[in-house]
Structure formats: C-alpha cells, structure tokens
TrEMBL record:
The gene is ccmI. The keyword Repeat applies. Its main location: other. SMART domains: TPR. This is C-type cytochrome biogenesis protein CcmI. It comes from Roseibium porphyridii. The chain crosses the membrane at residues 94-114.
Length: 376
C-alpha cells in the first residue's frame, strides 16, 4: 500500500513540475504601465506651461501633444490587456490547481476501487518460481528458457518447449529446440518430422535441404508415417521431379481414409502434377505459397506457370466477378510478381465490384493497406 501512496505523491510532484512554470504570469507588471501613464500626463502639462510662457511655438506644441497622446493611449491599452490577462491567469491557476489535486487523487482512488493494493509485489523471478497453473504462456516459456539456460543438456526440456514455440509463431526457435533435443536424446521420428515442418514453415512452405533430411530420417524410423512422406512428396514436386512426385502421392493416398484432413490437399497436389486439375478459370487463384513453391523451377517454366494462374483468375474475376478472398488473392499474386500497377488496377476493380457492400469493401481496403496499395 505504501508503494502506491508514494506513486501518487510522485505523480503530484511531476504534475507540479510541469504545470507550475506554465502558470506563471509573464506579462509586464501593472505598476509599470501606471507609471508610464503618469509620466505622459506630466509631459502634457509641461507642454501647456511652455506654450503659455511663449517658450515653444503653437505648431510645435500641437505636435508634441499628439505624440505624447499617442504614447499615453498605448500605455493605457497595455494596462487594459494586463488586467484581462491577469483575470485569465487566475482562471488558469484555478484549473491547474484542480488538476494537481484531482488527477493523482482520482488515479489512486480508481486503483483502490478496481485494483489490488494489498496484493504483494510479484516480480518475474517470483512468478517463475510459483506454480505453473494459471500463469500466462509468456511466463511459462520464460520458466522453461531459464531452466534450459541453466541446464542446456536437458533434451526433454528442449522437446517440451519446441511445440510451444510453434504455437506462438516462432518456427525458427522451434526448429532449433528440436535440433537440440535430437542432438542430446537421439533420433525420434516425431521430433524429426516436427523439426522438418518448422523449417518448412519458416521458409514460407519451401521444403529446404535441412527439412528434407529430417523427413528422410523420420521415414527411415517409421516407414508408414504419413506426415513426413507428405512433405517429401511436396519436396519432389517443388524440385520439378514430376514423375517421382506423382508416384509418391499415389503411394501415400493408396488405401487411405478419404475423410482424413490431409487427403484433400494431397489429391489437389496430385491433380496439379497430372494436369487433371480444374481449369484455371474455375480455380481460386495462386497464393503466395503457390508462387514460392515454384522457386526451384527454371525461370521460363516458373514464369509461365505463375502468369497462367494469375491471368486465368484475373479473366474470370473480370468476366464473372468473384469473392472478396479471390480479389485479395489476385492483388497479392500481382505483388509477388512485382506487378504493382496491375495490383492497383485489380484493387480499383474490386472496389467498384463491392461499392454497394460496406463490409466486403472494408475487407478489400484492409488487404490493400497491408500490400501498400492505394487504388490510384
């Protein structure tokens, strides 16, 4: 409780340090303006006396009176402005005083009402030592990381944190954790498969040499395992080894339950390789992963494939229209190809197509913002 009282006091002090200098009246003193006015009136009387005594000419006296009168009016105006600003300054001081008192008091009151002032402090070190139940994922990860820093040869610890890294979107860290677990504990088909998957995800869907090596080792340990064989079939297709990829997909699909989640994706890959996929005009269009998957093809084949997919989607959307997702896919595909102007044109067409649907229009604009498109 004492800690929060000190915080409130420090808040008040900080507020004073900022507001008090701002409240100071920086205008000329009222007394100075009054003194100037008295001097000018005395000068007028002096001119009148000199004129009566014949010491100055009437024209000179008139000119002196005019100049002195101008200065007198100016002094009077300054005095009026000083009074008005003083009144405003008083109002400002009242407002500042209320802010100095009210803000810290309100902050402290809200904390007492909504917070837990009697709860003891819980520094990170204490939370790391506390029971795991009820703690956030970040704290749990920090606990395991601290343990591994102190015990870097704990293979099971690396195996525990690896899937957690994947779940929070850190595939590179996951792959390193699996690699450490395998180095310390030894070969494990599941760990090898998951490490290969993490490497593939980290490389935007491309099965790299390291990932392929992990999948090969997993299959050597469990020849009938589906997941590593799935990725190996993908790798063959990405490498342009079409016949081998077709054979791998057919072998993987043989006798499998069609209700399995992976079967649909496998059949789509097989149809693509066999040339029996639906016509381009009836397909939703390429994703960024589709484009990335062609990186091992020859430049000519890759360009032909991508341009064909994109052109087919663009023609269908232009002729028949399509969903918001399809328009967004077309814009993304053009950006991947480096054709920003075509992406801008696609955006304008999409905005026109959904001009009467605010919700869909908002989704298209969000996607355009992410791609850096303006529709101009």
């Amino acid at each position: 409780m004492m800690f929060w009282i000190l915080i409130a006091a420090l808040t008040a002090a900080a507020t004073l340090a900022v507001l008090v200098p701002l409240s100071r009246n920086r205008q000329p003193a009222d007394a100075a303006s009054k003194a100037d006015e008295a001097v000018y009136r005395e000068q007028l009387e002096t001119v009148d006396r000199d004129l009566k005594r014949g010491l100055i000419e009437p024209e000179a006296a008139e000119a002196a009176r005019t100049e002195i009168a101008r200065r007198l009016l100016s002094a009077n105006e300054r005095q009026t402005q000083t009074v008005e600003k003083s009144e405003r300054s008083l109002q400002n001081k009242i407002a500042i005083g209320l802010a100095i008192v009210f803000l810290p008091a309100a902050t402290f009151g809200l904390y007492v009402l909504l917070g837990s002032p009697d709860q003891p402090d819980q520094p990170l070190s204490a939370r790391l030592e506390g029971p795991a139940q009820g703690q956030s994922v970040d704290v749990l990860v920090a606990r395991v990381e601290r343990h591994l820093a102190e015990n870097p040869e704990d293979g099971q610890g690396w195996a525990v944190i690896a899937p957690v890294y994947m779940s929070i979107g850190q595939p590179e860290s996951s792959a390193r954790a699996y690699a450490n677990a395998l180095r310390i504990v030894g070969p494990n088909a599941d760990w090898l498969t998951d490490m290969g998957e993490a490497l593939t995800i980290a490389n935007q869907g491309l099965v790299t040499a390291d990932a392929r090596k992990a999948f090969d080792q997993a299959v050597s340990l469990q020849p009938e395992a589906v997941k590593p064989r799935f990725f190996l079939a993908m790798a063959l297709g990405q490498e342009g080894r079409t016949d081998e990829a077709i054979a791998a997909w057919e072998q993987l699909l043989e006798g499998e339950d069609e209700t399995q989640a992976w079967v649909g994706a496998a059949r789509a890959q097989l149809a693509e390789l066999q040339g029996t996929a639906p016509p381009l005009a009836n397909r939703p269009g390429p994703t960024e992963e589709d484009v990335a998957a062609t990186s091992d093809m020859t430049a000519e084949d890759r360009q032909t494939m991508i341009q064909g997919m994109v052109s087919g989607l663009a023609e269908r959307l232009s002729a028949e229209g399509g969903s918001v997702d399809e328009w967004n896919q077309l814009m993304r595909a053009y950006m991947v190809l480096g054709e920003k102007q075509k992406a801008e044109t696609a955006l304008k067409d999409a905005l026109t197509a959904y001009a009467e649907n605010p919700d869909d229009l908002s989704l298209i604009k969000d996607a355009a913002d992410q791609l850096g498109l303006t529709g101009s």
